């Protein structure tokens, strides 16, 4: 986990083709338009989400569903228990796998931590998303949080390169 956090590669889209990358970026950008009005910021965030998710072996749309539930895409969100940033990472993780100087409000840093932590929990739970999401949220064994993330993932951010489908956005 520490190795994953310390790698500071510049985020980039990882797709089979540039056309596929642009199709995903355009579609997801449109879906986030109401939450993040600035197109440059939106595209930069989406590139970072896709990169960090992919490098951790996660579905980027799952991570978007998690961010939707955790912070509503507010990079400066702070929970009542002190979790920070887009993916609501608890500060103890800085001491555990990173460095106290790491800024969890920084988009790339927060995403790197969150994706690394979720991957860790998926490995512990042998790929069981329900249990891994419960661990991530500190609600292992309770259905509410995993169901919220799954619902956001499938209702708002589900995408496949061949579908050409549009998912209605509220």
Automatic annotation (TrEMBL):
Q: Which domain of life is it from?
A: Bacteria
The UniProt transmembrane annotation reads none
Membership in a protein family: Belongs to the transglycosylase Slt family.
Organism (species): Deefgea tanakiae
Q: Which residues form the Transglycosylase SLT domain?
A: 49-142
Instruction: Please give the InterPro entries that the UniProt record associates with this protein.
Output: Lysozyme-like_dom_sf, Transglycosylase_SLT_dom_1
In Swiss-Prot or TrEMBL terms, this protein is called Transglycosylase SLT domain-containing protein
UniProt cross-references to Pfam families, sorted A to Z: SLT
């Amino acid at each position: 986990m520490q190795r994953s956090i310390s790698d500071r590669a510049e985020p980039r889209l990882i797709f089979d083709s540039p056309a596929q990358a642009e199709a995903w970026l355009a579609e997801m950008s449109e879906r986030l338009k109401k939450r993040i009005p600035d197109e440059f910021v939106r595209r930069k965030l989406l590139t970072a989400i896709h990169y960090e998710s992919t490098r951790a072996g996660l579905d980027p749309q799952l991570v978007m569903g998690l961010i939707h539930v955790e912070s509503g895409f507010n990079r400066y969100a702070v929970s009542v228990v002190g979790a920070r940033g887009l993916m609501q990472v608890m500060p103890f993780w800085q001491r555990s796998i990173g460095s106290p100087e790491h800024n969890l409000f920084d988009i790339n840093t927060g995403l790197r931590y969150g994706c690394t932590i979720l991957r860790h929990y998926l490995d512990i739970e042998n790929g069981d998303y329900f249990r891994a999401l419960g661990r991530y949220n500190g609600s292992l064994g309770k259905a509410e949080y995993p169901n919220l993330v799954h619902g956001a993932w499938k209702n708002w951010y589900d995408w496949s390169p061949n579908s050409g489908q549009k998912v209605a956005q509220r």
